[in-house]
Amino acid sequence: MADVVTRDAINFDSPTAQILFSLIRMEVGGPAGAGVATAFIYTQEWKGQQAAFLVTNRHAVVGAQSGRLYFMRSQDNRPMLGQHVRLDLDEFGAIWHPHPRPEIDLAVTPFGPLALQLQTAGKSVFNSALNQTLIPPPENLETIDPAQDVLIVGFPAELQDSAHVLPVVMRGITATPFTICFGGEPRFLVQTPVFAGMGGSPVLSVRSIQQATPQGIVAGFQVTLLGVLCEVAVRQDRAPAAYVSIPLAPPGVLATANWAPFGLALRSWAIREMVEDLLRTIEGARGGEPTSSQTDADREGASSYPSALPETSE
After folding, report:
1. What is the 3-class SS of the chain, one letter each residue?
2. Residue ranges of the domains in the chain?
3. 209-248 pLDDT, tens digit each
4. Does the pLDDT value for residue 301 go beyond 70?
5. Architecture of domain 2-300 in CATH?
């Protein structure tokens, strides 16, 4: 009986489990101190193949001097619950490519070089990914409810499972319609508890669906990647709430007491836009003509990116 009480198990076929294993806990150190942030693995098609990336908030990694990423150890292509591996990186901020628009608080880095470092070190890890097909097509916006139930998955600094390093799942609701730009910007408001470390958390809807087939009614799930959490609402005396970047470390009891249970999320289309900008940067570094959105810093940093792209025979 004791073995049953302490036994770990998880339904790997669950769509929620697939989401859990796409999340990466990051410990980030920089001039302003150290803390926790959330990232997730994202895949997007490029020239007929899938390229993998790590996505998070720009404010979590800009200027970072060090980074530590946590992965679940794998054996026989199955996760080993309770066993994880770490990947320590210097000059962590330098590997990230920001969204081309400064007001979009997102950054991306190719996952290929990170996977290669793990492989070279003999570390086998288990992970899944959120694919671009989970991003809702603009022509189907009417299928998303104005008050949509959502899951927010991340690594809050104050709520940690140190034994398994699994993310925490929180339920919420879109407090403003995903289909309408909040404040005229490509973002929407989510009602959910917000903690330090949750910057970079994906916001998803997971709905049960039924489909008619020749064999009968088949039940399934529809997962939609709506956005990425980036800011928390802060109450102000006799003034509308302000929105501030979610910090990496808890700012203290008095400060968090003013946090309202609302977060701002960037619409998921910005992820695809950012990845496409990065891919153009890499193509420019390979000898193609750089785009007008590239800066000198982009071109200099692009030399560390090429392994993110599948090789082509053009």
Report:
1. CHHHHHCCCCCCCCHHHHHHCCEEEEEEEECCEEEEEEEEEEEEEECCEEEEEEEECHHHHCCCCEEEEEEEEEECCEEEEEEEEEEEEECHHHHCEECCCCCCCCEEEECHHHHHHHHHCCCCEECCCEEHHHCCCHHHHHHCCCCCEEEEEECCCCCCCCCCCCCEEEEEEECCCCCCCHHHCCEEEEECCCCCCCCCCEEEEEEEEEEEECCEEEEEEEEEEEEEEEEEEEEECCEEEEEEECCCCCCCHHHHCCEEEEEEEEECHHHHHHHHHHHHHHHHHCCCCCCCCCCHHHHHHHHHCHHHCCCCCC
2. 2-300
3. 656 666 656 556 678 999 999 999 998 887 788 899 999 9
4. no
5. Beta Barrel (2.40)
